[in-house]
Write a structure and sequence with these properties.
Structural class: mainly alpha
Radius of gyration: 19 Å
Shape: flat
Largest sheet: none
Helix content: 55-70%
Distance between the termini: 33 Å
Number of helices: 4
Order of helices and strands: HHHH
Number of domains: 1
Strand content: under 5%
Length: about 100
């Protein structure tokens, strides 16, 4: 969730760095909402379990769901554009000053 919040904040504070800052913000918002729904679903599912073993199996399955993007990244072949190293993000402004 932290990544999504940072992306939304950066897209909001630095719109000149994006071709479509609105789309960058909404992608971060969608990622945040999906993460929040998965976490709430995990909590509700675990609270409805009656035995320790059922709770443990639910926890293991939800950890697998949370780590699914890592498995997809590992399955990509070497040389894929998604695996290419990226330069470090340079933050030019710490805050956005609104002039009135």
């Amino acid at each position: 969730m932290r990544f999504a919040l940072q992306q939304m904040k950066y897209a909001n504070n630095h719109p000149e760095d994006f071709v479509s800052p609105g789309m960058a913000f909404y992608l971060g918002f969608g990622y945040f909402c999906a993460s929040l729904l998965i976490a709430v679903g995990c909590i509700l599912k675990m609270c409805s379990q009656s035995t320790f073993l059922d709770t443990l199996t639910s926890f293991v399955s939800f950890v697998g769901i949370a780590l699914l993007p890592n498995f997809v990244n590992l399955a990509l072949p070497m040389g894929n554009v998604l695996k290419a190293p990226t330069p470090n993000l340079v933050v030019k402004n710490k805050r956005r000053y609104i002039q009135r």
